[in-house]
Amino acid sequence: MTSLVRTSLAVAALLAAGPVSGQAIQASQSATVSQWIADAHFEITYDRPVARDREIWGALVPWNEVWTPSANLALQLRVNRGVLLAGQTLPAGAYSVWLEPKEGGAWRLLVHRDLEVAHNVVPSDGWVLEAAIEPRRDADHMEALAAYFSDADYREGALDLHWGTTALRIPIEVPEGG
Predict the structure, then answer these.
(1) Which domain range does residue 54 map to?
(2) What is the DSSP letter of 60?
(3) Model-level pTM?
(4) Count of domains observed in the chain
């Protein structure tokens, strides 16, 4: 093997290994999580904001204002078939997910038809789902926002959003024949 070929292969391996020195690394790391529940496939893509000793609820994330549980771009939800999300019908498709945190009582869950939306540009119309979700405010501390699926069973499960000591459990049902 010639030295030119060896050098080219070494450079290609270094570039494939990760960011080149000097490239910016996002403060809020990207994550993707997916889950099958029955014959429904769910995929969540989001950027995980980190608390970093900041007060989250009512400060970093204001009360009574629509916010996406993500940084950079809105949290993205893809589902391959119609399901019930928080008891509401959600057709197959790709969506952005938003919340309206409340200091007391239930929060509003909002799902929008546009997928690629900046985290700080709240859509004015085009909402396809709205539901009330009661937050749990005594969860173990989660430094970086986490989205995960819990209790995935034959036709039911939940999408959980957890940041700081607040956790939201969004029930999922997969109807038969969908």
Answers:
(1) 26-173
(2) T
(3) 0.84
(4) 1
Q: Which two three-digit tokens encode residue 156?
A: 């039911």
Residue 107 is encoded by which pair of tokens? Answer: 């929060």
Pick from 89, 79, 68: which is nearest to 147 by CA?
68
The rounded distance, in Å, linking the Cα atoms of 14 and 40 is: 38
Residue 165 lies in a domain: yes
Buried b (16+ CB within 10 A) or exposed e, 53-83: eeeebeeebeeeeebbbbbebbbbbebeeeb
Q: 3-class DSSP state for residue 160?
A: strand
Quick one: how far is CA 14 from the chain centroid?
Answer: 31
Residue in the block written with tokens 């956790």: 167
- The tens place of each residue's pLDDT in the chain, 178 residues long, gives 555 444 444 434 434 444 555 567 877 889 999 999 999 999 999 999 999 999 999 999 999 999 999 999 999 999 999 999 999 999 999 999 999 999 999 999 999 999 899 999 999 899 999 999 999 999 999 999 999 999 888 899 999 999 999 999 999 999 997 6
Task: Label residue 3 exposed, middle or buried (CB < 10 Å: 0-12, 13-18, 19+).
Answer: exposed
Is residue 6 assigned to a domain? no
